[in-house]
Amino acid sequence: MFAAYAARIDRDQPLNGLELGERPVPEERPGWTTVNVRAASLNHHDLWSLRGVGLAEDKLPMILGCDAAGIDEDGNEFVLHSVIGQTGHGVGPKEPRSILTERYQGTFAERVSVPAWNVLPKPRELSFAEAACLPTAWLTAYRMLFTNAGVRPGDSVLVQGAGGGVATAAIVLGKAAGLRMFATSRDEARRKRAVELGAVEALESGARLPQRVDAVIETVGAATWSHSIKSLRPGGTLVISGATSGDRPSHAELTRVFFLELRIVGSTMGTKDELEDLLSFCAATGVRPVIDEVLPLDRAREGFERLESGDQFGKIVLAVG
């Protein structure tokens, strides 16, 4: 079967390790199911995998891709939950949690095999491309907002780095849930798009907000950390799920953290139940993932190049079949 996979690890030039070509079809195994992929979406996790973060060289070659929607052999439409091992379903009960492609072949292929527990019915209201955007970036944003930030309708939230998959999802989901959303970006066009998606206001990175917020959604890391801390009201919450600009800010703002009794919460992906709730939320409200571009699988390298450049706004989707 045709696939996009990591053939080598290159920490400095990750795309040097990306190959497109034939790979073996998944083998049948007890408790697992094989899905014919119709759409899969790119995440920064895929670039990190090519750098060797979370992917050991002895696992190569590894088909990349965490997110997918597709059809099983009986014609049932499914969405994949890409966290493997946290429940013991389909794998040994003592196996540690991992994300698809850290241990098992991923979704950038014509077929993918996962534990049967890891597939959820795809709502008919969502296209395959839309559904394929949800299991990583959108699920991460959903958990950050509604599980870890503890915000309620009417609360205010700052989203740093408008344009990325998680940030874009947070703006759309927050608006739909009745939150007062603010966003930042260095790029004027991205700020304009953020307002179109529902942000009350979008400002340049580091700019002073018109008010302090109840929560901050942080995925940028070092470059925006100090601004995020300073933007919170006393008792506010910063939820962080990534650090694309680095994980060592020059100013940790520790005095402000303890004096204002701020909460800092780490967040990674989400549970199967949260993904099920997210699918239902999208189906019921009409909320749809923001898609930057849809490319056929054989043009996956173009998608990776666009993701690496940071020029996208929303999700890049690979269409299969």
Q: What do you see in this structure?
A:
This protein has 321 residues and is α/β, with parallel strands linked by helices. It is built from nine helices and 18 strands. The strands form four sheets. Strands 3, 5, 6, 9, 10, 17 and 18 form a seven-stranded mixed β-sheet that branches. A six-stranded parallel β-sheet has the order 13-12-11-14-15-16. Helix 7 links the parallel strand 15 and strand 16. The longest helix is centred in the middle third of the chain and has 15 residues. The mean pLDDT is 94.
The DSSP helix count reads 9
Integer-rounded radius of gyration: 19 Å
Per DSSP, what share of the residues sits in E-state strands of 2 or more residues?
25-35%
- Tell me which oligomeric state these chains represent: single chain
End-to-end C-alpha gap: 11 Å
The total of beta strands comes to: 18
The dominant shape is: globular
Q: How would a crystallographer describe the biggest sheet?
A: 7 strands, mixed
Mean pLDDT: 94
Q: Order of SSEs, N→C?
A: EEEHEEEEEEEHHEHEHEEHEHEHEHE
- Unreliable stretches: none
Structural class: alpha/beta
Helix content range of the residues, please? 25-40%
